[in-house]
Amino acid sequence: MSKEKIEKKIKEEIELDPVTADTIAKEFKEHSVAEFFKKNKQMLGLYGKVRTLTTIIHEYVSNSLDACEEANILPEIEVKLDELGEEYYEATVKDNGPGLTEETVGKAFGQLLAGTKFHRMMQARGQQGIGASGCTMLSQSTTGKATKVITGKGDGKVISLELTIDPKMNQAKITNFKKVDKEYRGTAVQAKFKGVIYKDTQGGVLEYLRRTAIANPHAQIKFRDPKGQTVLFKRTLTHIPKKPKEMKPHPLGTTVDDLVTMSKYTESRKAGSFLKNEFDRVGDTSLQKIQNMIRFDLNKDPHQLSWEECEQLIQAFKKVDFIAPSTEGLSPIGEDRIKKSLESIVKPEFVVTLTRKPKIYAGGYSFQIEVGLAYGGNAGERTSSNPEDVKVELMRYANRAPLLFDGGSCAITKAIQSVEWKRYGVRDLDSAPLAVFINFISVHVPYTGAGKQAITDEEEIMEELRLSLMDCGRRMGIYLGAKRREHDRKMKQEMFYKYIPEIATALSSVTKEKKETLITKLEKLVKDKLGLEKLEAKIKSKQVGKEEQEKADDEIGKAVVVEDEGSGDE
Amino acid sequence: MAKKEPKEKAHVHKKTAHDLRMEKEGPKEIGRRIKEMADGLVEEIKANQDPTFITSQRGRGNVSFSEAEGIITLGDKKTHRNFLNVAHARKFMQTMLVTSKANDYLGNNKTAAIREIYYELKHTVGGTDENTFEDQSESDGVIVDLEHSVETIREKLNIHANPKGTLYGDITLIDRMHRNDEFNCLKLGRGGWSIMSRLEPNEIEIKKVNADYVLVIETSAMLERLVEEDYARKNKCILVGTSGQAARGARRLVHRLNAEFKLPVIVFTDGDPYGWYIYSVIKQGSMALAAHSEFLACPDAKYVGMTIEDIKEYGLENVTEKMKEMDVKRAKEMLAYDWFKNPEWQAELKTAISLGKRIEQQALANKSLEFVATEYLPKKIKKKQFLP
After folding, report:
1. Which domains are present in chain B?
2. Do B86 and A524 touch (CB under 8 A)?
3. Quick one: DSSP state of residue B246?
4. Smallest Cα–Cα separation from A438: which of A286, A315, A320, A332?
């Protein structure tokens, strides 16, 4: 039984029992959700005037992306911001997704904690579905205005409505409901907010959308900023990513509490089959091992399991050598796609990308790391109008959603800082023309806070991040080394070439040999000499690269040390 | 110091072996050598080989003092200059430019001063902001390379140094390069004859010399003093002013007077490292031109002053100068030179270092203006109070 089902069952039970404590609990719950939200906006990322606006756009855009993906649609998203007054903006987000029905639109925009993604063991951008409704709430609480939604399923009928949230009931209040005959598929939302500011700096909407576009190469995103300037991030991929599958929990990622709750609502009649059916990687062999370690019979009715017995099970899980969790729920972007995307949007000189194999943290959660290093060209943040003034750009993502804030406390930032970039030909990371792209993929992203902007530095995560970065760094180092040698070669060639006409003229004057012949011959001579060196360098770097690759896969600290100078012998 | 072998030194009217060689090496021969070198380079280029020419290695490592001849000589260490070498490419290009220019001079019967060739060849290398030569020292160095590469002297390449130095005294010259002008250097006024940088016998003929010795003088001021005192006539000598370090022309002239006319050479400089070095260049030759010492040096030259002894002798304590740090350092270096390793010079240098004093020629004016001409030089020369 999935958590979603459990939730449903709890709700049904509450509704069946109209009296007493449960009724109070229900009211209490509904009160608390909306009230809690009102009082704790900052926990949900709605604080800071620039950040709040970015968070709003994030909520709408990730909903759009998720909806499109689930419906197998190539997303086309338009974002508009209009400045209505001081710290007063109107946001409009329009997609070409599957659209919402009369029933679902209220839940999507007018009920907190009502999303379809809540409590599913599946990789998703937002994990709590609090976002769009949170925006409705924020809009009405700062401006007193309703949120406008237009949505259609492409069947010639379009719904147009305005909604607010009744905080006590945690329900949408819909007004101005209209049904229009119009050919439109998708959802458009428009809401006004006060106490927010638009800036096109780090952490701003533009940067957020740019990063979103990088990690979602199948999406096309158009943005019109408050000044009327339009930016279009074109898709570089016309292929919708594989839909992540819903996954059963892995025994090692389960707590006693989870187990108790799940056992109450299972349809299995024996504890053994309950474990086998509802958990990932539990088979007859592992059941036998578990049986040997616990003090009760696994043929017992799972509904009768006590807290203590569940504790025994959890203890036993730890001693069983389970197969690592299934990685079917993970949907990486893919090396080639990240590369294409970075090339198209960042416009660097070159890109190396890497999608690592899935790994496990805390025993039961699978996760996967993708790294992209974009070097040179337009890579890196410009810190002034001088194109030489460049700062490394860290692009952190969790399940393709950009993490723009709280970088300092994030495992990704810490891992990047812990790598010795000098080994890979980057002398000073801070001032490198480099963009570091990292996508952390997991069904369960261990965020440091409800703002969902930083990943906890679990040991396994840190280690895997470091290895991924070093692996990618090595590839970049080989490239940079070759590039440096090529640069040296060019410099040398230029140095020789510039003297050739002078020499040819002089020798021609003494010997009467044709000047043009001498020029051609001398240029060939230079090319031949430097070509040989280049070839040698290539062979050398290839050998080093191969050896290193072989032994380095899971070993920390091995690296190609990029030569500081060229391979020249003079 | 060892005396130079007399058999090499021809008498007045006979030409030396060197002269004969030099005469044989006319513009045609030098032109042929240049072409040979250039042809070799072109051949290498056509064969897809790094064009390389050979020149003598210069500097300390290839220079030695020949005790027997009393001159500084260049060893036979050779060095390669090739194009495909980051360190040599520029110099290679410069050498080609100078070679081509020298070839033009020889073909057109023109001669140019080293400063002229520098300006003639200086231009921006196409497509860069780099000049073919950044300053004259670059072209000067390349000229020396070329001299060694085609085994000749720059004068034979129709390139010459800027004239420097003055000749004064009863000596009659014929300038074969200039309307065969004939003149006596006692009758050119107070200025004397400005020494040309090219004065091979076929260019400047020394017709007659009426003198007992040659006096080489470091400073122009002292030369002027001696001219004013009519020293040359009164003492029957030739005066050669070098105005500091002696140029090639002056050295060649002094050498010819010494070799062809057997005139003793007496050198008169400031009593300091700079002056001592001027003397040593006249006597043994220089490291820079070690290859040509044979016809530039005068191994039997003597040093008349200024000496540390003079200070006491003539009571010049009040007109000495303090040696600067650089002077002391230089003097200490000179102590180690092979050609200063005789007891007299070792003593002179050591005393000067320990006193930390130097003395200029002009200090003698402290006695009286004419003192140098009437007392100091005549007496010291008569008594042969020389340093070797």
Report:
1. 18-160 (1.10.10.10), 166-382 (3.40.1360.10)
2. no
3. P
4. A332
* Residue A247 pLDDT exceeds 80: no
Q: Is B119 a catalytic residue?
A: yes
Distance CA A525, CA A497 (A): 10
Alpha-carbon gap, residue A231 to B264, rounded angstroms? 94
C-alpha to C-alpha distance for A567 and A560, rounded to whole angstroms: 15
Burial class of residue A362 in the structure, from the number of CB atoms within 10 Å of its CB (0-12 exposed, 13-18 middle, 19+ buried): middle
Which of A499, A524, A529 shows the shortest C-beta gap to B93? Answer: A499
Cβ neighbours of A502 in B, within 8 Å: 93, 96-97, 125-126, 132
B125 to A513: CB separation less than 8 angstroms, yes or no: no
Interchain proximity A522–B45, CB inside 8 Å? yes
Q: What angle (nearest 5°) sits at the alpha carbon of residue B105, between those of residues B101 and B106? A: 115
Give the residue from chain A lying closest to B46, CA to CA.
Answer: A521
* Residues in contact with A506: Cβ distance below 8 Å, sequence separation at least 6, in sequence order: B96, B97, B99, B100
Q: Give the mean pLDDT of B362-384.
A: 95
Q: Which letter does DSSP use for residue A443 in this model? A: S
Q: Which residue type does A1 have?
A: M
* The Cα angle at residue A90 between residues A87 and A94, in degrees rounded to 5: 150
Residue B305: count of CB within 10 angstroms of its CB? 27
B265-309 pLDDT tens trace: 999 999 999 999 999 999 999 888 888 888 899 999 999 989 999
3-state SS, B65-105, equals EECCCCEEEECCCEEEEECCCCCCHHHHHHHHHHHHHHHHH
Same domain assignment for residues A259 and A339: no
Note down the domain range covering A396: 335-475
Q: Which member of B42, B97, B125 has the closest CB to residue A511?
A: B42
SS3 content of chain A, % helix, strand, coil (to 5): 45, 20, 35
Q: Is A485 found in the same domain as A467?
A: no
Number of folded domains that form chain A: 4
| Segments in chain B forming alpha helices (H) | 17-24, 27-46, 89-108, 114-121, 136-149, 220-228, 231-235, 248-261, 273-284, 308-313, 325-335, 343-355, 371, 377-382
Written as one string, the DSSP assignment of B173-184 is: EEETTTTTEEEE
pLDDT, tens digit (0-9, with 9 covering 90-100), for A33-64: 566 666 666 656 566 888 889 989 998 998 89
Q: Indicate the DSSP class of residue B56.
A: E
Distance from the B89 Cα atom to the nearest Cα atom in chain A, whole angstroms: 7
Query: What ipTM does this complex have?
Result: 0.77
pTM: 0.59
Alpha-carbon distance B195 to B106, whole Å?
23
Question: Quick one: CA dihedral B14, B16, B21, B22, positive or negative?
Answer: negative
Nearest to B4, CA basis, from B14, B13, B16: B16
**Torsion-angle region of B352 (φ positive above 0: left; ψ -120 to 50: alpha; else: beta):** alpha
Residue pair B99/A510 in contact by the 8 Å Cβ criterion: yes
